[in-house]
Amino acid sequence: MFTENQIKELNEAFKDAAPAEIIKKAFELNDEAVVTTNFRPYEAAILHAVSSVEAKTPVVWCDTGYNTPQTYRHAEQVIKDLDLNIFLYVPKQTSAHRDVIMGIPSIDAPEHALFTEQVKLEPFRRAMEEHKPKVWFTNLRQGQTAFRDSIGIFSLSKDGVLKVSPFYYWSEEKLDGYLEENKLPNEFKYFDPTKALENRECGLHA
């Protein structure tokens, strides 16, 4: 749908634009959109920004089943406060079942790839196959991983979906200001069972 040249032009044109402008432009390009979230820190910003432009945008939550109680409470609060149009996707096997058979393998264990496939990649693929979005809003930011440093506000997913990261150039300090200004909650007690280190790429975005 989009060429690399168009992506480059969009990134140049919107480098200094406000998130709301970026989101409006993405909806002008195609309104078949989803926003994905895992309710990690600062996710309330992207959810608020997108739903402020298009209130009923489908929100895809891929829940690994290993979130902290704090994350689940935070998710419930944000869903309620922003009246999100939430679509929940979970692994086909419960975490209780998997704990008995595999547990949470270390990043170097041979089972790690299967674990990541089960708790993260398969539910995400299922979500994208069901929604078939042309635009995918996400809260990726520069400085998080080497891969994320290379993509810009607009990029293309492996499947050719236009991926839009409206807060791409924002620092945590600036995001703190956004959350405060819009009276949005944040929660830092977040656990991703597929990562050993915070700066590893999770597999969905690479």
Automatic annotation (TrEMBL):
Residues 34-185 form the Phosphoadenosine phosphosulphate reductase domain. Pathway: Sulfur metabolism; hydrogen sulfide biosynthesis; sulfite from sulfate. Belongs to the PAPS reductase family. CysH subfamily. PANTHER family: PHOSPHOADENOSINE PHOSPHOSULFATE REDUCTASE. This is Phosphoadenosine phosphosulfate reductase family protein.
